[in-house]
Design goal:
275 residues; Jelly Rolls; four-stranded antiparallel beta sheet
Length: 275
């Protein structure tokens, strides 16, 4: 389980490193909460977050109920079978801080991705920046005061047997203004098995399109693939190989290694049912 502060760095070839800061901490159920990761300032942070949790939990349960009905099932089917019930599902707060960046064409707040959690509930500080991918184009998500943005993640894609799509999205940064967003991640417990709902695939109704996988394995695979597929890892491996080789042979080895890494990444992306 990931909780605490994190800094993501993206290197600008001219100006060095740009910092993007995050704070993670669980907000529900109580057994998952560790207040050591909650900020002490402002003093009312805990009280406000606990009140917000009560409201956002009710909202998420309504949305999941509507999604369940959209599959032709009763309102409780998705949250019970997919997330283990109201008391088993986990809610995590993620606060994003995107500082201004003068060269907008050189950095993204977050690279394109789909979310490994079931639902993402998002509000921002009136600074636009979220984009979603549709029909081979990126579209800006309009900021609407008092509106909450909801994104479907990988587990609901699997649970719905592909009827609901996980949203490919990314974030951009402003040139002069700081962007912040407050995100609640709704997800199954890590030992839950993520699979198409039995009420959709049982008794020959539909052919399952996804293999069963524990939520823990799904997250680990997705995070691992995201890390090892970054160019920096290819570069580090190439440097290590060059230190062991000399002359033209080293360049040939580096060329071979870079191509091998690309092939492995393509193989892994097709072998694992990422969803």
């Amino acid at each position: 389980d990931i909780q605490g502060y994190e800094t993501k760095s993206q290197r600008d070839p001219e100006d060095g490193v740009d910092r993007l800061d995050y704070l993670f901490h669980n907000i529900w159920p109580p057994s998952w909460i560790d207040y050591r990761y909650w900020p002490k300032n402002p003093p009312e942070y805990r009280e406000v977050n606990e009140e917000y949790t009560r409201h956002v939990k009710k909202l998420v349960e309504k949305i999941v109920g509507w999604l369940s009905e959209g599959l032709g099932l009763d309102r409780e089917a998705l949250i019970k079978e997919g997330f283990g019930g109201r008391d088993m599902a986990v809610y995590t707060m993620k606060i994003n801080h995107y500082p201004p960046y003068p060269k907008l064409d050189l950095v993204l707040g977050l690279n394109p991705h789909t979310d490994p959690n079931g639902l993402t509930i998002l509000v921002s500080n009136e600074i636009p920046g979220l984009q979603v991918f549709k029909d081979d184009h990126w579209f800006d998500v309009e900021y609407i005061p008092s509106a909450i943005i909801c994104l479907i993640g990988d587990p609901i894609l699997r649970m719905s047997n592909g009827k609901y799509k996980n949203v490919l999205h990314r974030t951009t940064v402003e040139k002069e203004r700081t962007r912040m967003s407050w995100v609640v991640l709704f997800k199954p417990a890590y030992d839950m098995v993520i699979r198409p709902l039995m009420k959709l695939t049982g008794d020959g109704c539909e052919t399952p399109k996804f293999k069963p996988v524990t939520y823990r394995d799904h997250v680990y695979r997705k995070v691992w693939f995201d890390v090892v597929s970054r160019p920096v890892w290819s570069a580090l491996l190439g440097v290590a190989l060059l230190r062991l080789s000399f002359g033209l042979g080293s360049w040939l080895c580096l060329f071979y290694l870079s191509n091998s890494i690309s092939c492995v990444m393509l193989f892994m992306s097709s072998f694992f049912d990422w969803g």
